[in-house]
Design brief:
By secondary structure, the protein is α+β, with helices and mostly antiparallel strands. It is built from ten helices and eleven strands.
Length: 295
């Protein structure tokens, strides 16, 4: 709702009034199961798209990281907002940092992506699934169910909430999810007037190109938005710096930099990064004794 009001306010500045239609998604309702057990795509999106299709809504506001890598043919994505802090956030009532956690400490996260990266850095910790909205998760932390939890910095900042200790996790420690930190506004395909108004009011070109590259890599990896996969592109003066990490023992990683000026450039960079990740995965699958064999 906070995110939707932010988009509505941008439209209001242009004299366009929005009536907000609250919708509960399966991801909101099914709070006793891990997200990846509910479904790999559309967990927080399907019901909103249904409201667009039947005319109850003219646009839908999503956390960009919740979107599947490919939209339905009758949907389009006219705007991606300026990206806020894309990093994950360490939250705790007792420990001042992730590094300060004692062996055996319990860390809560709903994200396989966060879990595999943080487990690689601290295999001595216990990672458990935590569900619910931000307030619910922070309450579980305050009640002592977890020693720490991991949330998105952007969400905490938007809600102006947190815990005793809130520390952003470096990109090198935990590569963010595709689109994390940005809002995506979805409309019906062919509804050109609405799409144009929203794009003019909300879209940030640099954020859009970076996230288009990330989404292209996600598609090329044939992965869903809840996959154990971190992909992040950052705008730089000499090109877009893009990195990816996939689950493995140890995790496999790739990095690329290229100049991107349009959608096709962004998609090409994403495909190239996905290719590098696939190649790294294939190398990781080879027997470790290979190369030690006698000729």
């Amino acid at each position: 709702m906070v995110q939707t009001r932010a988009v509505a306010a941008r439209l209001a500045e242009r004299g366009i009034v929005t009536t907000i239609l609250p919708i509960s998604t399966i991801g909101d309702r099914e709070r006793d199961r891990a997200i990846d057990r509910i479904g790999s795509v559309n967990v927080f999106v399907g019901e909103l798209e249904s409201a667009l299709r039947d005319g109850r809504a003219d646009y839908a506001v999503h956390s960009c990281k919740d979107l599947p890598s490919t939209l339905a043919d009758d949907m389009c994505l006219p705007a991606i907002s300026k990206r806020e802090d894309p990093r994950d956030a360490f939250c705790s009532q007792r420990y001042a940092s992730f590094e300060a956690l004692t062996p055996g400490a319990v860390v809560g996260t709903s994200s396989p992506r966060r879990a595999f990266q943080l487990r690689a850095a601290r295999p001595d910790l216990e990672f458990r699934t935590i569900r619910g909205n931000v307030d619910t998760r922070l309450r579980k932390l305050a009640d002592g169910e977890f020693d720490a939890i991991v949330l998105a910095m952007a969400g905490l900042n938007r809600l102006r909430t947190g815990a005793q200790y809130v520390v952003p996790l470096g990109i090198d420690l935990c590569v963010p999810s595709v689109g994390q930190g940005a809002l995506a506004v979805e409309t019906r395909a062919g509804d050109d007037w609405v799409a144009t108004q929203i794009r003019d009011a909300v879209n940030d070109l640099q954020s859009e190109l970076c996230i288009l590259a990330e989404r292209s890599a996600l598609r090329a990896m044939q992965a869903g938005c809840s996959a154990p996969l971190g992909i992040y592109a950052e705008w730089a003066t000499d090109g877009c710096d893009m990195r990816g990490v996939a689950d493995g023992t140890p995790p496999v990683a790739a990095r690329r930099r290229a100049t991107i000026a349009c959608e096709s450039d962004a998609e090409g960079l994403g495909i190239a990064l996905a290719s590098d990740l696939r190649a790294a995965e294939r190398r990781d699958e080879r027997p470790h004794a290979e190369g030690l064999q006698q000729p």
